[in-house]
Design goal:
The protein has 314 residues and is an alpha/beta fold. Helix 10 packs across helix 11.
């Protein structure tokens, strides 16, 4: 799976580093026989200067057809012209089914090339007003960390590019691989912002009974746990447990339990041939109806369609 990380004069080094970490770093800890084959590329020959005198060499290109995924870590937010040949090639690449994702200001390149017309998109909040004024035909999303429809994606800011990258990895290699990468990146327990979270979010560990209870619950989600059970295991009153939960994770215990149950269901749907009823019971739901309700509510997809899209055994 070939990935191109696109740079330009004056590119942002942090977003570039995020792209390298996600798609260019070797993953010897994974059992996958394949990983991404990644190149640093530019439409014009380098090297390119960046902060602190760092110079980055790149591969000059004039076609994008070799890539399955193009990553745009950043782009100039000024209304500067894009070379016509480059713009045309971006359009052809997208029309051929090539995937493109942008981090932070990289959405400006996608929008300027016309790739975001009548699509949802986002970028860093500091550029939001400029983006909306320049690209009125793009459906700008204020309250998300990223948007991604499987073909084109944009992240709201630098760190949110990691969230978007993890989602791409999950779609390419599955839930377990994405979570392995997320753990290596030490992603937080829950990323607020309204986006549909598809990855298993590791709980941050602190040496106390509360965090130990959450670790235990995540590993025993099939038991059909209740909030009262978790409070008892934490040696806390229900009121104190609810209050601490919101302080630590910014959500209710019930919300957290449902997220863990849906995550468990996703793993089963990806890796087994169990019936939906069995998946529901194994992931801690009372029945398949409840599973379908929360699955649709959180992920906007049914369990059956999720399995069709992501099951690796079929």
């Amino acid at each position: 799976m070939n990935v191109g990380i696109l740079i330009y004069p004056g590119f942002a080094i942090f977003e570039f580093s995020c792209a390298l970490e996600l798609f260019a770093l070797p993953r010897p800890e994974l059992s996958q026989s394949q990983w991404y084959n990644t190149k640093i590329v530019a439409w014009e020959s380098g090297p390119y200067d960046t902060l602190c005198g760092i110079k980055v060499e790149c591969v000059p290109i004039n076609r994008l057809e070799e890539f399955d995924l193009l990553v745009v870590p950043s782009w100039n937010t000024a209304n500067s012209a894009i070379p016509e040949t480059f713009c045309d090639e971006l359009v052809r690449y997208q029309e051929r089914g090539g995937r493109i994702i942008s981090f932070c200001s990289g959405a400006f390149l996608l929008a300027q090339a016309g790739l975001l017309e009548n699509r949802q998109a986002t970028t860093h909040w500091r550029y939001a007003q400029t983006f909306k004024e320049r690209f009125p035909n793009v459906h700008y999303m204020d309250d998300v960390l990223y948007v991604y429809d499987g073909t084109i994606g944009c992240s709201a800011g630098s760190a949110a590019g990691l969230d978007l990258g993890i989602e791409v990895i999950r779609r390419d290699f599955g839930h377990d691989v994405a979570n392995t990468v997320a753990r290596r990146l030490v992603l937080p327990a829950h990323r607020q912002g309204g986006q549909k979270q598809y990855i298993e979010n590791p709980v941050q560990k602190t040496p106390d009974v509360f965090s130990s209870t959450l670790d235990w619950a995540a590993k025993n989600i099939e038991l059909g746990l209740s909030v009262d059970m978790l409070a008892d295991k934490s040696l806390m009153s229900r009121r104190s447990f609810d209050r601490k939960f919101r302080e630590k994770l910014n959500m209710s215990p019930k919300q957290w339990l449902i997220i863990q149950q849906v995550d468990a269901a996703k793993r089963l749907l990806e890796s087994s041939t169990d019936t939906i009823d069995t998946v529901a019971l194994k992931s801690g739901f009372e029945n398949a109806v409840t599973l379908r309700h929360h699955f649709k509510r959180l992920l906007n997809i049914s369990p059956t369609h999720y399995r069709v899209q992501f099951n690796k055994t079929s």
